[in-house]
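User: Could you go from structure to sequence for me? I need the amino acid at each position, not a summary. Structure tokens:
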């Protein structure tokens, strides 16, 4: 059995900072700093409060995943990514369905911007298929591929275009690990407690233990911590699941 340190397990956990105001978001940052690896700032929070929350997180020595899923013409996404780099975020993402040109130009511009500023290059991910979508949803939209086929197709496109890795459902991790080496990063949202039975808008989920054991590099957790009666205890439980998952690889 491998000996996994708490820090190693902590670093794999990204907390979804899904708040609609600065004060609430900051309270979570204060509570969880040092217990997780990164805070995810998504559309809801960034639209409500803007870059201020990123600056506050960074001032506390914590890492930021800017989860805005850029998807537009290449020039627009390039400029948005450069703005994100100037905020010194540690991770950001684009939609893989924006195409290889958009991804390639964004990766080049973002990393060039980081180099010019003397910053560490951010991890730049491509979103494959949202965890709220299943094969029936894709058919409704007009895709002819099922989720597995589309995830693999988009992941290969992203890798060829230079992305660091992908955001993908826990149920797609095994497929991705069969086709990509360990250097290709997999970030997995939609993680639920191993014992959870609650149904919500996430359709393709796994527990933290199963996701990490299968090969996820980072997992994104929101509701299982945020809605828990004792959030810090729930956080520690998930970190333990991560450690167990790493040990079981």
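Assistant: Here is the amino acid at each position, in order:
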């Amino acid at each position: 059995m491998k000996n996994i340190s708490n820090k190693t397990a902590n670093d794999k956990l990204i907390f979804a900072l899904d708040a609609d105001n600065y004060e609430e978001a900051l309270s979570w940052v204060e509570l969880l700093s040092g217990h997780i690896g990164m805070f995810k700032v998504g559309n809801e929070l960034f639209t409500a409060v803007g870059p201020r929350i990123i600056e506050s997180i960074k001032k506390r020595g914590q890492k930021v995943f800017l989860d805005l899923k850029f998807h537009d013409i290449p020039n627009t996404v390039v400029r948005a990514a450069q703005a994100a780099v100037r905020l010194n975020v540690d991770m950001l993402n684009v939609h893989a369905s924006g195409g290889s040109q958009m991804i390639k130009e964004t990766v080049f511009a973002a990393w060039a911007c980081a180099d010019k500023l003397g910053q560490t290059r951010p991890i730049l991910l491509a979103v494959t298929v949202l965890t709220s979508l299943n094969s029936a949803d894709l058919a409704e939209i007009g895709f002819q591929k099922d989720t597995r086929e589309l995830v693999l197709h988009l992941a290969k496109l992203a890798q060829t275009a230079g992305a660091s890795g992908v955001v993908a459902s826990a149920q797609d991790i095994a497929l991705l690990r069969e086709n990509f080496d360990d250097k290709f990063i997999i970030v997995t949202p939609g993680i639920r407690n191993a014992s959870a039975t609650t149904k919500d808008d996430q359709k393709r989920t796994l527990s933290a233990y199963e996701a990490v054991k299968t090969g996820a590099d980072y997992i994104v957790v929101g509701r299982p911590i945020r809605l828990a009666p004792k959030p810090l205890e729930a956080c520690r439980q998930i970190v333990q699941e991560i450690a167990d998952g790493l040990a079981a690889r």
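One structural detail worth keeping in mind: Confidence is low (pLDDT under 50) at residues 200-204.
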